[in-house]
C-alpha cells in the first residue's frame, strides 16, 4: 500500500509565530481526542499529520490524545467538557451529533466560516456524509473517517456453485437464490458454509438499515425526534433477515460482529455484509479471490447507511484553541490528505475532489474494490441517529436480536421497540 510521509522537521514545528501573544505565551495548544484503543499504524499516521500541521503553522501545537473506543472517547470528552477542560476538537461518531448538541458540548462549524473559500470547503463534502453532520440549519460535524456497508463475496465459492464470480446479487431475490446455492453441508448434514452472513451484535441497527434502506424506508426523521420502527416496510426488512436463517442459508440466532470477517476467511460464509472498514483486513487475510459489491436492492436500487466519525469543535475550549482546531480540520480534510487517509486507513474519502487526486486515482485503478463504497454514496442515507441516541439504539438493537433469536416475531419486536422509543423521545417532540 502506498504511503506518503507527512512527518516534517521537529525543529520547524518549534518555530514561534511572530506575534506578541505567541512570543509571550508560546504555541496555542490544541488537545485533539482520537478514538484509538491501542497504538499502531493509525496512531503513527495521525501523529504524522499533527507534526506536519504544527510545522506548517508555527504558533500552533495540535496534540493527539488516543482515548480508546468511540464510546470511551465520547465519555472522556464529555467528562472533560463538564470539568471545564474540554478538548479543542475530537473525532467522534457522526451519530453522536444529537448527544453532543443536547449536552451543549459543541459549537457550530458555521461560526468559523469567514471567507468564500471557507464556505466552498464546507460544500465540498459528499451530501450523504453531511446528512449526519447537519441539523436545524447548522453544521455541527465535519466528515473524516467515514464508511458504508458493502457485501464481500468469495468468487471461488461462486464459481463452485455455478454463479457468475463477477456478478454479485443485485437484489433481495438474487441474494436469497445465491445464498441457497452457496450453502454447503457436510456428510453429517451440518452446515459447513452458509450462503450469507449478516452480523447482529455491536451494530445491529446499522445492519438493519442495509435492509430498510433498499426497502425505501428511513428509521428516523432528520430532526432525530421520531422513529418508524413499526412501519410495515421496516417489519418486512427484518422479516427478510429472519427468513434467511429460517431457510438455513444464514446462521441462526445472533451473529457476532467481530468474528464475521474470520468466518469469511475460513469459508464458513460465502457472502458477508459488513463495513468497508474491513476492506484492508479482507484484502490482507482472504486466501481466495474475493469481490466487493454494493448492498442488494429491493424496492429501490440498493442503499447503505453511512457510518464512521466526524470532527467536532468543543464549545468550552478557549476561542484561540477553537480557531486553531478549525484550521487543523480544514487542513486535514483537504483533498490530498483525505485521499491518502483513505489509502492508509481504508475509510471512504469524504469529498469528490479527493477521488480526483493522482494518488487515489492510481489506487482505485490498481484496487477497484476501494471505489465501491464511494460509488454507492448517491443511494446512501444517514446512519440512524436520534436524541438520547444510545438508549434508543439499544431498544432497536435488542428488538432485532429478539426477532433473530425467535423470542418475538419481527412485527411484535418492532411494535414493542416503537413504544419504548416513543417514550424516550417524548420530551423532544
UniProtKB/TrEMBL annotation:
Keywords: Signal
Protein name as annotated: ABC transporter substrate-binding protein
Organism the protein comes from: Comamonas faecalis
Main location: periplasm
Signal peptide: 1-24
Entry's family note: Belongs to the bacterial solute-binding protein 1 family.
Cellular location(s): Periplasm
InterPro entries xrefs: Bact_solute-bd_prot1, SBP
Keyword presence, Signal: yes
Amino acid at each position: 500500500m502506498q504511503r506518503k510521509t507527512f512527518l516534517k522537521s521537529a525543529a520547524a514545528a518549534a518555530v514561534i509565530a511572530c506575534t506578541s501573544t505567541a512570543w509571550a505565551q508560546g504555541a496555542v495548544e490544541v488537545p485533539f481526542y482520537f478514538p484509538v484503543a491501542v497504538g499502531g499504524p493509525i496512531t503513527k499516521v495521525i501523529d504524522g499529520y499533527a507534526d506536519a500541521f504544527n510545522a506548517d503553522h508555527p504558533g500552533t501545537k495540535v496534540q493527539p490524545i488516543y482515548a480508546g473506543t468511540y464510546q470511551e472517547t465520547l465519555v472522556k470528552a464529555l467528562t472533560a467538557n463538564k470539568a471545564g477542560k474540554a478538548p479543542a476538537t475530537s473525532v467522534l461518531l457522526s451519530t453522536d451529533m444529537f448527544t453532543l448538541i443536547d449536552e451543549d458540548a459543541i459549537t457550530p462549524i458555521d461560526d468559523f466560516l469567514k471567507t468564500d473559500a471557507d464556505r466552498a470547503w464546507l460544500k465540498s463534502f459528499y451530501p450523504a456524509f453531511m446528512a449526519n453532520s447537519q441539523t436545524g440549519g447548522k453544521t455541527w460535524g465535519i466528515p473524516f473517517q467515514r464508511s458504508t456497508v458493502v457485501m464481500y463475496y468469495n468468487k471461488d465459492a461462486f464459481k463452485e456453485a455455478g454463479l457468475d464470480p463477477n456478478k454479485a446479487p443485485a437484489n433481495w431475490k438474487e441474494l436469497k437464490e445465491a445464498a441457497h446455492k452457496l450453502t454447503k453441508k457436510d456428510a453429517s448434514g451440518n452446515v459447513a458454509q452458509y450462503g450469507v452472513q449478516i452480523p447482529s451484535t455491536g451494530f445491529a441497527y446499522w445492519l438493519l438499515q442495509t435492509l430498510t434502506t433498499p426497502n425505501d424506508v428511513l428509521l428516523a426523521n432528520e430532526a432525530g425526534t421520531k422513529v418508524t420502527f413499526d412501519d410495515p416496510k421496516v417489519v418486512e426488512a427484518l422479516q427478510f433477515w429472519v427468513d434467511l436463517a429460517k431457510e438455513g442459508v444464514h446462521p441462526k440466532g445472533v451473529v457476532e460482529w467481530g468474528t464475521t470477517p474470520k468466518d469469511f476467511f475460513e469459508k464458513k460464509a460465502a457472502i458477508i455484509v459488513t463495513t468497508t472498514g474491513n476492506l484492508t483486513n479482507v484484502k490482507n487475510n482472504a486466501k481466495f479471490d474475493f469481490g466487493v459489491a454494493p448492498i442488494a436492492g429491493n424496492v429501490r436500487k440498493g442503499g447503505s447507511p453511512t457510518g464512521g466519525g466526524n470532527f467536532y469543535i468543543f464549545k468550552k475550549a478557549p476561542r484561540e484553541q477553537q480557531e486553531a482546531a478549525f484550521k487543523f480540520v480544514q487542513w486535514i480534510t483537504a483533498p490530498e490528505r483525505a485521499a491518502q487517509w483513505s489509502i492508509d486507513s481504508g475509510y471512504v474519502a469524504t469529498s469528490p475532489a479527493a477521488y480526483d487526486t493522482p494518488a487515489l486515482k492510481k489506487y482505485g485503478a490498481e484496487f477497484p474494490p476501494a471505489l465501491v463504497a464511494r460509488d454507492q454514496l448517491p443511494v446512501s442515507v444517514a446512519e440512524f441517529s436520534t436524541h438520547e441516541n444510545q438508549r434508543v439504539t439499544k431498544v432497536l438493537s435488542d428488538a432485532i436480536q429478539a426477532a433473530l433469536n425467535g423470542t418475538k416475531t419481527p412485527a411484535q419486536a418492532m411494535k414493542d421497540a416503537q413504544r419504548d422509543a416513543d417514550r424516550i423521545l417524548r420530551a423532544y417532540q
